[in-house]
Amino acid sequence: MLTLEQSHQETLQTEPAVLARAQQNRENVEQKTQQGYSEQTVWMLAVKMQRDRAAFCKLFDYYAPRLKGFVMRSGVSGAQAEEIVQDVMLTIWRKAGQFDPHRAQVSSWIYQVARNRQIDVLRRERRPMPEDLAEPDQATEDASQILALEQEAQRLRLALSRLKPRQREMVEKAYLGELSHAEIQEETGLPLGTIKSRIRLGLEKLRHELKELRSS
Amino acid sequence: MSEIRHHISEPLIAAYVAGNVAQPYALVIAAHVSMCEECRARMAAHEMAGGAVLEATDGHVISTDLRAQVLDALDHAAPNEAQAYQRSGIFPAPVMEALKGKPPKWKSLGFGVRQSILQSGDDGSVRLLYIPAGQEMPNHSHDGLELTLVLQGAFSDEDGRFGVGDVEVADDDVDHAPVAEAGEACICLAATGAPLKFRSWMPRLLQPLFRI
Ligand SMILES: [Zn+2]
To answer: What DSSP designation does A202 have?
Structure first.
């Protein structure tokens, strides 16, 4: 499955260590997909943990066209949209360490990076961001939390696809940044409450782990 | 930290996530989220909704060079990042960033009340306010939304008690008269839409004395 992208990795493919690592990465990907992680999460984790270029290519091919379409919907020209896509995808590679599948989907993380970049470009100002959460050093993966979030994301996508056209348009406008807070409805028709609760559990667990790390 | 009871409203969080909130409000929201796990989780939920919209967007053909350019650039050194500020004392990281890492420059408003303006422009202003314990906040008018986040101490008004981490969301010209609680001085981060206009430079409680 990864053979196509491996041709993009021109670097020293023949070295046994590199081949062994590629094999290892492939096994990781298969194992995690079997666990029920979405492909996008698996690719992103491979980029984060193994700096896997083939996985990054997968992410690029999946997200870059969507990102371009998304950015262009706010009235940005094709050329400028591609500049934003380039910046966003490079940020994804460079800041992959910040991706935390217990609290975010790849798409929500990319959405966030894209909004920040667009604001930088359009308004020439950096928007204030919340304090980063301290991450435990040896972050242990909690598969049940990651899976539960994947399932919530699935429900969310389904709910979005089932909205009435008018309501869906309002939701899209809201997240494209075209509505003020006064124009945004309290009720979106999306199951955000359950998602919030799930992420809250993840945050509590993180806080707990940090406490244990500090006391040990 | 005592439990936070007053949060950012759902539409404001959504607008913040979508990047459609004026800079002064965005600072108060970012500061509150830094202190509030509930709102951090709500913010993440809205980011997921934004991600779902992104996923469902029809793709646009990407020019062939772009992919190669991005792959080429993976090995380049990342451009210098803006300095990351850390929380310091009662000030969460985004407030420290607005202060550029320095202590606030307080200006007296009289009667022990002080302010330190962090930003002021066409899209509104955001300031730190220092109200001595037991003192009433300066009476002021504002157009549109006012967000007030408590960083130290507490204040009370008709809408209830606001302690550390609580944020009061006052739409339009609510005539509220917040009073700082006895004990510790109250320090707030307050954002208003249009430039803040003080109706009087003295706290209202003291006004009758001066009308004689
Ligand atoms: Zn909150």
So the answer is: H
CB contact under 8 A, B23 and A65: no
B172-208 per-residue burial string, b: 16 or more CB within 10 A, e: under 16:
eeeeeebbbbeeebbbbbbbbbeebeeeeebbeeeee
pLDDT for the residue B80: 76
The per-residue pLDDT for range A115-132, each reduced to its tens digit, is: 999 888 877 778 899 998
Picking from B15, B43, B56, the nearest residue to A161 by CB comes out as B56
Sign of the Cα torsion A69, A70, A73, A79 reads negative
Tens of pLDDT, residue by residue over A47-98, are: 999 999 999 999 999 999 999 999 999 888 999 999 999 999 999 999 999 8
Q: Is B151 on the interface with A (CB under 8 A)?
A: no
B187: part of which helix (H) or strand (E)?
strand B186-192
Domain presence at residue A81: no
Does some domain include residue A97?
Answer: no
A29 assigned to some structural domain: no
**What are the residue ranges spanned by the domains of chain B?**
1-212
Tell me how far the alpha carbon of residue B42 lies from the centroid of ligand 1, in angstroms: 8
Please identify among residues 91-130 of chain B the ones whose CB lies closer than 8 Å to any CB of chain A: 92-94, 97-98
Q: Is residue B191 within 8 Å of residue B146, measured between CB atoms?
A: yes
Class of domain B1-212: mainly beta
A28 versus A125: the higher-pLDDT residue is A125
- Segment holding A43, helix H or strand E: helix A39-50
Residue B50 with chain A: CB contacts under 8 Å? 108, 111-112, 115, 175
Residues A177 and B49: beta-carbon distance below 8 Å: no
Beta strands in B75-176 (DSSP E): 107-110, 113-121, 124-131, 140-141, 146-152, 155-157, 160-162, 167-170
CA of B3 relative to ligand 1 center, distance in Å = 10
Most A CBs within 10 Å, among B12, B20, B42, to test the A interface: B20
Provide the domain count of chain A.
1
**Residue A186 located in a structural domain:** yes
Q: Which domain holds residue A178?
A: 142-216
Nearest to B59 among A53, A65, A199 (CB): A65
What CATH code is carried by the domain that includes residue A191? Answer: 1.10.10
- A–B: how many Cβ contacts below 8 A? 215
